[in-house]
Design a protein that fits this description.
This protein is α/β, with parallel strands linked by helices and 257 residues long. It contains 8 helices and 7 strands. α4 packs parallel to α5. The structure holds nicotinamide-adenine-dinucleotide. The site of nicotinamide-adenine-dinucleotide (NAD) has 26 residues, from α1 and α6.
Length: 257
């Protein structure tokens, strides 16, 4: 696949998994659009650095995906979109009885509804261009539950339902829609939690990773951002033309249990 002719929009892509996906597509020559919820100059600088490093086009577009209008405008402002990666996500942990309604609404808005809005605007463009790829970053928590994450788990299960529906509605076109379900990925956010966990549990780094963080990940290894990026690129390649409406788990065996 020649990605140098493709335009890739990745939501929530100034950090973590989204940034890994942007870097991968940029390294393959694609035009990339980064997104986050604020117009911090650092976000624009990050896009400039990526453009310079990979000699490609990279720009940053602000859109707060809590708001449907901003999610839709992000796509309508990108009329040449070929590949849409719905990656933005937030988390909140609490028993259901204490789970604040605002947190529930925000998580459903960012982790699920924003993908509905971006897909709704991207499909007419992809149909006009005669090709399109949609990748939704779900989670192992789209397939398995854990306590105290009701909104996150509902949204991540929901986005798999959305993925299947979009796949059926586009099945006879050269457009595919799939979901990636990572287990624990060692993003900067996860890395930053390790020192605190070491203090709380009075264990060394290795023990925290193995016994606490990866307690349910049978491989006892983190998934890497690069592996998620490679899986995303694979789902956009010719080899994956007949893969649509499915989930690709990178979870070290978690969903085998
Ligand atoms: P992260 O916090 O580094 O990235 C989340 C991104 O979403 C950030 O760039 C943030 O700016 C953006 N974002 C948050 N709220 C937004 C909003 N209102 N509007 C626009 N952008 C917004 O986290 P990550 O670990 O890289 O997670 C990326 C995706 O992968 C998420 O959907 C997450 O649920 C999923 N995921 C992560 C893991 C993991 O272990 N890290 C595992 C499974 C799934």
């Amino acid at each position: 696949m020649d990605f140098s002719t493709k335009t890739v929009l990745v939501t929530g892509s100034t950090t973590g998994i989204g940034l890994g996906i942007v870097n991968k597509f940029a390294s393959l020559g694609a035009n990339v659009i980064l997104n986050s919820f604020d117009n911090n100059p650092d976000n624009h600088e990050l896009a400039s650095q990526i453009a310079e490093k990979y000699c490609t086009n990279a720009i940053f577009k602000k859109a707060d995906l809590i708001y449907p209008d901003e999610a839709r405008k992000l796509v309508t402002d990108t009329p040449d979109i070929d590949i849409l990666v719905n990656n933005a996500g937030i988390q909140y942990v609490s028993p259901i009885e204490d789970f604040p309604s605002e947190k529930w609404n925000d998580i459903i808005a960012v982790n699920l509804s924003s993908a509905f809005h971006t897909i709704a605007e991207a499909l007419p463009i992809m149909k006009r261009k005669g090709w399109g790829r949609i990748i939704n970053i779900s989670s192992v928590h789209g397939l398995r539950a854990s306590p105290y994450k009701s909104a996150y788990i509902s949204a991540k299960h929901g986005i798999i339902g959305l993925t299947k529906t979009v796949a059926l509605e586009t099945a006879e076109m050269p457009i595919t829609c799939n979901a990636i379900c990572p287990g624990y990925v060692l993003t900067p956010l996860v890395e930053s939690q390790i020192p605190d966990q070491m203090k709380v549990h009075n264990k060394d780094r290795e023990a925290i990773i193995r016994d606490v963080m990866l307690a349910r990940q049978p491989s006892k290894e983190f998934v890497s951002e690069e592996q998620i990026a490679d899986a995303t690129v694979f789902l956009c390649s010719e080899s994956a033309d007949q893969i649509t409406g499915t989930t690709l788990s990178l979870d070290g065996g978690w969903t085998s249990m």
